[in-house]
Amino acid sequence: DPSFDSTTPAPAPSPSTGPAPGGGTRGRRSADLRGMNWQPLPGTSEEADAVGKTMAGLKILRGADATEGAVKEVRGPRILHLATHGFFLPDEPAPAAASDPGAPAAPGVSVPAAGAGPGRENPLLRSGLALAGANKLRSGDDDGILTAMEASGLDLWGTKLVVLSACETGVGTVTNGEGVYGLRRALVIAGAESLVTTLWQVDDLATRDLMTGYYRKLAAGKGRSAALHDTQLELAAQPKYAHPFYWASFLAAGADTPINKD
Q1: Phi-psi category of residue 66: left, alpha or beta, with phi > 0 → left and psi -120 to 50 → alpha
Q2: Residue 178, SS3 per DSSP
Q3: What is the DSSP string of 74-96?
Q4: What is the pTM of this model?
Q5: What are the tens digits of pLDDT across the range 111-129?
Q6: Cα gap 117→144, rounded to integer Å
Q7: Strands, E, within 116-233: which ranges?
Q8: What span, in angstroms and rounded, lies between the C-alpha atoms of 109 and 89?
Q9: Which terminus in the chain has less CB density within 10 A, N or C?
Q10: Mind listing the pLDDT tens digit for each residue in 215-252?
């Protein structure tokens, strides 16, 4: 339940070290995110409480503490669970012919990656997660928007499982020779062994119940994919969650061995 309207001032650079390398990431986001307003997600706070009762030793960050900077500071956590708004922007329209091919790109537009059309944004800027400060585009040295490009630079080597409990985190742009651009690809690059992502907007209560059952099965020694499959079947057997909308959005990818057996 990040505080999307909160703002955290950027820390003053140390006199001895100067500003941090890279100067933060403000501005490195899709221009199409301008004007978006992220609504509170109180259901994700309930989800965190429910999961915390199932899996011992979790550190829960919520509200103003659920920042982009906090995510970037993690170093190989065994499990990383992110419950917030996710976004996947559709393909950009084909650009008009440029009158000056040598003209600089507009602010916030990156140099196209391999597979991206001329003059288009890097696809890794068009999917990501909203965190504290996202509505103000201010969160310390960051803007509160963790793009897939930034996620690819996380230190997730040794991380057994990343769960993205947010909408549209399992989709991306298919580009010839480059696979799927999006959060899934970014987190694999970052080192995650396995992922649970979503294909569409998810229901808060159904997600809370699904995640509670999922982590309970993981703690009991079930494989990562098998635990999700079994939990989805249990949810589908409940009349209030019988429609696939409530349970079928989640998909697992990567290693399937139990997380406590590696």
Answers
A1: beta
A2: coil
A3: -BS-SEEEEES-EEEPPPPPPPP
A4: 0.79
A5: 445 445 555 677 788 788 9
A6: 27
A7: 127-130, 145-147, 161-165, 173-175, 179-181, 194-198
A8: 14
A9: C
A10: 999 999 999 999 999 999 999 999 999 999 999 989 99
